[in-house]
## 1
Amino acid sequence: MSARKKNPVGSLVWFEIPADKVERAQKFYSALFGWKINKMPGMEYWHIDTGGADASPDGGMMKRCDPQQKITNYVFVESVNKAAAKVKKLGGKIIMPKTPVPGMGFFAVCMDTEKNVFAVWERK
């Protein structure tokens, strides 16, 4: 068994797709790309297995919270705190501060200078 390949800092590691009708989106992406999309136990959240190599990003799908909500890409960083400070220094904004994902790591949702939303991810 090979060791899981590590993602370099700055690489995409996760994405989230909001959907008005999750079942419809699940059917679309499964047919289009062959992705396996399964509901996570006890959550209104679906895991997307893209079928790629270990280091390629998988994702999640959830019911859209806001009509303006778009796909969010998660970028790997060594420190969410340092990345968030740099986002602010460069003219971006923090939409959701550092948030833990138990047993996995931390993320913060940010907005760039062009009003695009993205997240930074730190592994535990």
## 2
Amino acid sequence: MTLRVIAIDGPAASGKSSTASLVARRLGWAHLDSGALYRAITLGALDNLGERGAGSGSPWSAQQIVALAEGLPVRLVLVDDVFRPEVAGVDVAQAIRSERVTQRVSEIAAIPEVRHWVNVQQREAVQAHSRGVVVDGRDIGTVVFPDAPLKVFLTASPEERARRRLAERGGGGGGEAEVRREAELLAARDRADSTRAVAPLKAAADAVVLDTTRLSLEQQVQAVVALARTRLPG
């Protein structure tokens, strides 16, 4: 049976989640944001293991974090065709977007044992939803679902991604200087994600690379939907 997964990868602020969500809705599929699961684990660690970590003298161990994720539990729950993150039975879709989680999620996501645990959860979620799932992240097409029939790698210039990120936050009032600062932060994140030892950010060899710098959200959604209807008819 054909694996009914569309893998959408790309750097920070490339529009992965927005695109994946709308593509899933157009196709009548489910949407899974892998970043939400990493954020949920980070929130669980912050709330239950204390505000400590690398550099504080008492870092969290991989075993602690995975055991906590299993015990709370941290899980994905399908609600209206969207996989929502839960921690100890509580919907944390909003709580995981806090600045304290944002500051620590990259550190947690870099831990090999945590990535393995998250990958298992994602594969189980997809297997339980045979209609089809659009999954977005940074290693979906290369590591999590290397056999996905459609892999898309979204990209855009750091400046355009900076503008989008600032707009999401309701910022951007500082003009080009603010855009440059945000672009520098995103470029640094790109370097870190692309050079990490575990599951580095990169396009799969058979991915369709879509530069969205000059595309509207609607245009990039239409492009992915058209590819999906060609590769995964029915």
